[in-house]
TrEMBL record:
Lineage: Bacteria, Pseudomonadati, Pseudomonadota, Gammaproteobacteria, Oceanospirillales
Domain of life: Bacteria
UniProt cross-references to InterPro entries, sorted A to Z: ACP_syn_III_C, ACP_syn_III_N, Thiolase-like
Protein's name in the database: Beta-ketoacyl-ACP synthase III
Beta-ketoacyl-[acyl-carrier-protein] synthase III C-terminal domain ranges (all copies): 283-371
Amino acid sequence: MTNVVITGTGLYTPEHAIDNASLVAAFNAWVDQENARNADAIERGERKPLTYSSSEFIEKASGIKSRYVLNADGILDPTRMRPKLPQRANDEPSLQCGMALSAAREALDNAQVEAGDIELVIVACSNLERAYPAVAVELQQALGAGGYGFDMNVACSSATFAIETAANAIAAGSVKRALVVNPEICSAHLNFTDRDSHFIFGDACTAIVLEHAACATASEAYEILGTRLATVYSNAIRNNAGFLNRVTDSDPLAMDKLFVQEGRRVFREVCPMVASLIAQHLASLELQGSDLKRLWLHQANRHMNDLIARKVLGYDPSEVQAPIILDRYANTSSAGSIIAFHLHRESFEAGDLGVICSFGAGYSAGSVVVRRR
Ligand code: CO8
């Protein structure tokens, strides 16, 4: 028991959606264009022709049907194959701050908390749009929050790691109220010309308000019974983009400066890690899988979630017991499990128990056990 409660969540969903059929049509048009450009080398056997992607494969392998993105036109343009986002001037709100403001305001409204009462702002996500000043400090000012803010990155596990960080600050008495925000612009770091991964990600932003239980007034509150985090180093999900690219004379536009993964290996290695993390966490709280009413899992792959949920709960869960949002949102990195928690708290009553769990690059995994107050 931490004496910390989650009292509000918020979600920003971009207005553009791309379904599998449109994404695959753009990819296949790009393949035709590349194969025509390299026709001579292909003819001489020096180069293999690129092969088409397929909507059937994407849905069957991942469960993803569609994704939301900040910009669809650039991604669907076979001569571009990446989003086109306007550069913002230094005196304009940054893109991530804009997404964060929208999600944060909804979370604050739900929590019935004034922005001025927030004393800690954590922006936690996979990709930050600049090195400094921290997006969290910009958001703090834009909201009119007090205290302090900082950015952190634990890839897909950023939200649960930030929840633990915020809960610890509240439990230690450093602050009474904290705001965690996850502005994920995954489309900017996705290689839309890579057949193996072009369909995986979408954009979204989530926000969570955490308070000391004694301060919380919202009608709907979730006590954090405990948090548990784990990391194991792996290169199976990697992105080499970084500030040293300029000075190492490597190509800053090379494909390794985007998301790269060995999907099958990730699947094989991460599922047991996550299932055992949740089981150990529950055992430490003298709980077991059968005590849980809901699992709000990270949303990367439908089959991964089915496997993990079965291991944790001991039976095949329904969509109510382990909600899936990746069919519409795809993998939104750290926002995924929080979107599931935000959209699927229906029929959750006082005393009901659930787990918010994220996992991803690092490897990293985080478990947050909550009980409706
Ligand atoms: N269309 C048609 N066929 C395809 C396609 C395609 N698009 N892609 C691959 N195939 C073919 C392959 O060529 C292969 O053919 P063959 O059998 O003849 O060799 C066959 O389909 C099977 O390929 P795979 O083995 O690659 O397919 P899988 O069944 O493993 O499915 C997945 C691929 C869906 C990627 C799956 O492996 C998966 O989801 N794995 C887990 C991934 C995961 O959870 N990753 C977490 C990463 S997220 C994270 O940590 C956050 C990072 C930060 C975010 C940054 C934002 C960009």
